[in-house]
Backbone:
């Protein structure tokens, strides 16, 4: 830089600069003071103001990719869509039992295959249009158009002929098991008795959409039209879209045409797309948000320690596991895979690394899913594991080729992988390397079976063991382990749907799960928990295993004058 | 001057074509596509999506049709944000990012120039060492450290300023502007100190003093005009850098700007978005460099002469 070689100005030729000093100091001081004064005018934070005016400020992860229920896939989208739209059936926010939504009641035929829904006569779209059974037939037809690119089309597959229609085997939608018997009666015929079918109806992929609005902005099966934009979107939910500012906020306000508008208490919900966990927690702490769905892992301990009522930790219907590529030579022997599974000290991972109340997992299906408590003989047992490894030809780990754990780049995944690497070294004396890849590269490697051991996670779409176990069917798109057992497929695809009773069905699942765990193409590690920060002024926020909020039940009431200012 | 500008703009065309081609090849060669997801995507869906976004065409055809669209000012639809066009997303992000860059630049200039000039007036004294050491610290301090630090002090403890947001609450623009501007302020301080020292030792300043001109006139009218040319030359790239480099600050303070889209687009393999943003930033950098060169020419008679001679 040139200043170092610049000639010095001596005292003699430097004149009096005091004018500058005095004036500039004054000017800067005044400016600073003005800025600070002008900035602290407001005083009241979002939470206190929101509590008075019935406006819920909700930290919502990322900018929604779409608000079209037949296109969207993410959790942030889900939260907004359930405020704007509603299915035939709702879920109880505590027990997740089915509750009347647009349908006031329903009959189920004796063989469990035919559902008849009786729709409310006072159901309306948010623009006042009548909302009836034909809307469902049309919406479900739309959702099954391949051109639309609906990633959740499989949610329709329990319906008779839906899969065949979607895959082009039949072309007449009349053959699909959904009929409007009259304006307010909808009959749905299923392939098999499907005990979780009512639950699916509360998933946004089965929500109805407003035909006239969609057709106004493009073809029914056209992606990315403007029908979901601010000012265009017409829904049937408790709230209606009033503002969508990209990367800033999505605002929904009470829908006066909603059939149950009288019981909705919030006036408005403002969803903020905040990706950064540290930022969102800070905003929550400063009273800018009532809710944050993420808590930075290293802050959980502090909240727990001071027993902060804002921290909600609840079991979440999801499992963190490791996939094993069963085509890798040293991992083809199930005794090796079992040995790996038996030497992960899950309690240690949960207590020392995760620290958020996560439950050690010994099964792929979270225990308690629809009353399903799978028996598992998987346990932390290094001695037995060493014996298995020796039987497989690697006594004391000798000769075991260096194997790689692949995970997508994230500090949390790295910590767990390091711990498991050490456990396997300690208990089995085998060398494991760690490899992290950026998300999309990692997905490519996992789907292409270009990995040896890979970290994975699965969050249930509905509460039923089927949602976890059908992942590992021979040609299941989410299998990604190369493992295939026709007997397993037969249990899941044939025996379970034909089960006469709930108990019998669960027993069949248990047999399948035992088979899966015995072969161990996947190693369960822990059951997720949902970690939410909820301001105590938010009432009727109920924790449930789907981490699904019910905005129509929530209301705001500050317990103390200044609650929300500090948490 | 105008011929100079026109010349430079013409030179920008091949530069932009190279940028577009290189980026196009790079994004298409990155592993993982825009539609790969955690949950398996059925082949029918992939096919439908690829057809919709023209990805089923051979790469060269995609390239030609993309170039054609870009020439017409259409960056295409975003792959990730269904229903949004890249133009629309960029337009949505510009106001916040540009405003942030502008304020950051003001912070950088006010702090940087006054510290630099003050230091140059008393070189090798405490009044030089203190701001210059602070400047060194400012250059070294990354915004992901300074931002949260400011938030902790002024947002959480003192509760003077909102911890995040942009235009939602009074005062929420102060901390992001300071965070983003500080690094540049430090650089400008060192830059202006160096060139001011050089200018203050020039003959014409001595002449001015000998003529008995007052000190403010010497500093503000004569010395600063020449002394700030390097700063002006730095403004163009700096402003472009502020626009493109605000990702961290935008994330810390939850600002609805362009930076977040840029980084997210790369993670999402949102091809059109990555391309659109790259072209947009490349064009901005070219434009700001041109503007700052023109400003420098206007300020510096020597350069003015050169520019005239060249054309």
Residues:
């Amino acid at each position: 830089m040139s200043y170092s070689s610049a000639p010095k100005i001596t005292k003699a030729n430097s004149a009096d600069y005091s004018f500058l000093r005095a004036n500039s100091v004054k000017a800067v001081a005044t400016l600073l003071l003005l800025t600070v004064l002008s900035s602290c005018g407001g005083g009241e934070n979002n939470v206190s103001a929101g509590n008075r005016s019935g406006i819920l400020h909700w930290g919502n992860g990322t900018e929604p990719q779409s608000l079209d229920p037949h296109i969207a896939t993410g959790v942030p989208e889900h939260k907004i869509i359930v405020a704007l739209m509603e299915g035939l059936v709702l879920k109880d926010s505590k027990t997740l039992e089915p509750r009347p939504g647009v349908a006031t009641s329903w009959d189920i035929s004796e063989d469990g295959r035919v559902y008849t829904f009786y729709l409310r006569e006072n159901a309306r779209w948010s623009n006042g249009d009548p909302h009836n059974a034909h809307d469902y037939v049309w919406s479900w037809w739309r959702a099954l158009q391949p051109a639309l690119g609906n990633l959740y089309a499989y949610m329709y597959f329990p319906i008779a002929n839906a899969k065949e229609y979607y895959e082009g085997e039949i072309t007449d939608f009349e053959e699909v098991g959904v009929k409007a018997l009259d304006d307010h009666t909808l009959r749905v015929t299923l392939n098999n008795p499907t005990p979780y079918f009512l639950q699916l109806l509360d998933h946004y992929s089965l929500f109805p959409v407003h035909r006239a609005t969609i057709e106004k902005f493009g073809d029914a099966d056209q992606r990315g039209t403007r029908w979901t934009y601010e000012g265009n979107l017409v829904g049937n939910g408790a709230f209606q879209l009033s503002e969508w500012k990209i990367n800033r906020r999505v605002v929904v306000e009470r829908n006066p045409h909603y059939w149950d508008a009288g019981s909705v208490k919030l006036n408005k919900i403002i969803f903020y797309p905040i990706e950064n966990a540290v930022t969102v927690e800070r905003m929550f702490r400063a009273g800018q948000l009532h809710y944050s769905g993420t808590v930075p892992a290293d802050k959980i301990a502090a909240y727990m320690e001071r027993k902060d009522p804002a921290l909600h930790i609840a079991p979440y219907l999801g499992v963190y596991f490791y996939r094993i590529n069963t085509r890798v030579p040293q991992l083809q022997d199930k005794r090796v895979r079992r040995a790996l599974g038996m030497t992960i000290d899950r309690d240690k991972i949960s207590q020392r690394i995760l620290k958020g109340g996560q439950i050690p997992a010994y099964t792929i299906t979270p225990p308690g899913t629809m009353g399903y408590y799978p028996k598992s003989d998987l346990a932390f047992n290094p001695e037995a594991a060493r014996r298995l490894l020796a039987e497989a030809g690697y006594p004391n780990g000798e000769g075991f080729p260096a194997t790689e754990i692949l995970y997508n780049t994230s500090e949390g995944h790295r910590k767990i992988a390091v711990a498991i690497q050490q456990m396997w070294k300690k208990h089995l004396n085998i060398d494991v390397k760690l490899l992290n890849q950026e998300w999309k590269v990692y997905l490519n490697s996992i789907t292409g079976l270009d990995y040896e051991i890979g970290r994975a996670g699965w969050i249930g779409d509905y509460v039923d063991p089927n949602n976890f176990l059908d992942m590992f069917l021979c040609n299941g798109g989410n299998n990604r382990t190369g493992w295939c057992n026709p007997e397993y497929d037969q249990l899941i695809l044939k025996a379970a749907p034909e089960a006469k009773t709930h108990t019998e069905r669960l027993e069949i699942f248990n047999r399948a799960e035992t088979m899966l765990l015995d072969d161990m193409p996947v190693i369960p590690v822990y059951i997720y928990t949902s970690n939410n920060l909820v301001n105590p002024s938010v009432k009727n926020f109920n924790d449930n295993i789907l981490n699904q909020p019910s905005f129509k039940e929530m209301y705001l009431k500050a317990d103390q004058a200044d609650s929300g200012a500090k948490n | 001057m105008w011929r100079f500008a026109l010349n430079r703009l013409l030179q920008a065309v091949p530069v932009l074509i190279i940028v577009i081609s290189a980026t196009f090849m790079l994004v298409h060669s990155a592993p993982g596509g825009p539609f790969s997801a955690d949950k398996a995507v059925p082949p029918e869906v992939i096919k439908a999506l690829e057809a919709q976004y023209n990805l089923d065409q051979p790469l060269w055809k995609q390239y030609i049709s993309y170039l054609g669209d870009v020439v017409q000012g259409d960056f295409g639809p975003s792959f990730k944000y269904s229903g949004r066009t890249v133009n629309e997303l960029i337009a949505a992000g510009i106001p916040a990012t540009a405003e942030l860059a502008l304020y950051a630049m003001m912070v950088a200039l006010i702090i940087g120039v006054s510290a630099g000039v003050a230091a140059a007036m008393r070189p090798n004294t405490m009044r030089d060492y203190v701001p210059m050491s602070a400047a060194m610290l400012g250059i070294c301090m990354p915004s992901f450290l300074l931002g949260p630090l400011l938030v902790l002090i002024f947002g959480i403890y003192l509760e003077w300023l909102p911890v995040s947001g942009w235009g939602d609450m009074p005062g929420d623009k102060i901390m992001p502007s300071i965070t983003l501007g500080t690094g540049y302020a430090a650089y400008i301080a060192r830059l202006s100190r160096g060139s001011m020292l050089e200018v203050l030792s020039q003959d014409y300043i001595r002449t001015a003093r000998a003529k008995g001109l007052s000190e403010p006139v010497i500093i503000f009218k004569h010395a600063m005009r020449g002394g700030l040319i390097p700063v002006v030359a730095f403004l163009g790239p700096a402003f472009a850098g502020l626009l493109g480099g605000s990702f961290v600050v935008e994330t810390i303070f939850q600002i609805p700007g362009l930076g977040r889209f840029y980084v997210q687009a790369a993670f999402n393999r949102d091809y059109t978005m990555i391309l659109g943003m790259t072209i947009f930033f490349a064009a901005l950098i070219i434009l700001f460099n041109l503007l700052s060169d023109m400003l420098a020419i206007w300020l510096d008679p020597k350069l003015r002469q050169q520019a005239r001679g060249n054309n």
In short: The first helix of chain A runs from residue 18 to 39. Chain A touches chain B through 78 residues (CB under 8 Å). Residues 57 and 181 of chain A are 42 Å apart (CA to CA). The longest strand of chain A covers residues 311-324.
